[in-house]
């Protein structure tokens, strides 16, 4: 219980028995992927899809958790890694990277873009944060505005990146909302 709560960051749901013989722990906002083929005999394997595997990886490293497979982008569409608990069970954590599917042949054209100065500075910080280039950030953001999600549109960003964007907005003095562009004057 101590390993799962203090080292891996799970929340304790309940304990049962005196002494405790059964307990429940819950990872925050997590999807569980089950390994249907266990290539490792005599131990369990479970995989969790989380919001930000990079952040969790750093937590696990700082907690001296035994990392058995380092974090990396995988061909099956996750950026993930695997740890080992004190009993030798393997636990994987990752987030989606959406790299599956056939290649999409495209042709790019030059487009003149003018942006509000503070937005341009934030956009450059996002290039660094996402490890891509300006075109990648703009295409990703633009494509997501076409995807309806409930009463709004889909976001290309994880919750952690959205939190980071809020920090960048403060840093760059962006004090206007998402609909402000219709009020911009030069």
Key attributes of the depicted protein:
2,3-Dihydroxybiphenyl 1,2-Dioxygenase, domain 1; alpha+beta; 25% strand; 186 residues; single chain; 2 domains; two-stranded antiparallel ribbon
Q: How does this structure look, described?
A:
The protein has 2 domains: 2-96, 2,3-Dihydroxybiphenyl 1,2-Dioxygenase, domain 1; 117-181, no CATH class. 8% of the residues are buried. Strand 1 and strand 2 form a beta hairpin. Helix 3 (117-130) packs across helix 4 (134-144). It has helices at residues 2-7, 53-62, 117-130, 134-144, 159-171; strands at residues 11-16, 22-26, 31-34, 45-49, 66-73, 78-84, 90-96, 148-149, 152-153. 29% of the residues lie in helices and 25% in strands. The strands form 3 sheets. The protein has a 5-stranded mixed beta sheet with strand order 3-4-7-6-5, with helices on one face.
């Amino acid at each position: 219980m101590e390993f799962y709560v203090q080292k891996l960051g799970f929340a304790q749901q309940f304990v049962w028995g005196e002494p405790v013989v059964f307990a429940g722990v819950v990872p925050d906002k997590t999807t569980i992927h089950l390994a249907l083929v266990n290539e490792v005999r005599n131990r369990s394997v479970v995989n969790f899809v989380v919001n930000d595997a990079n952040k969790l990886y750093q937590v696990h490293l700082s907690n001296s958790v035994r990392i058995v497979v380092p974090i990396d982008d995988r061909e099956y569409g996750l950026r993930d890694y695997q740890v080992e608990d004190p009993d030798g069970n393997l636990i994987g954590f990752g987030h989606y990277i959406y790299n599956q599917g056939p290649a999409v042949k495209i042709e790019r054209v030059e487009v003149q873009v003018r942006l509000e100065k503070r937005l341009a500075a934030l956009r450059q910080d996002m290039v660094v944060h996402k490890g891509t280039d300006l075109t990648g950030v703009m295409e990703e953001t633009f494509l997501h505005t076409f995807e309806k999600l409930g009463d709004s549109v889909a976001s290309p960003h994880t919750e952690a990146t959205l939190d980071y964007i809020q920090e960048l907005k403060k840093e760059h003095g962006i004090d206007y909302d998402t609909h402000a562009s219709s009020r911009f004057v030069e």
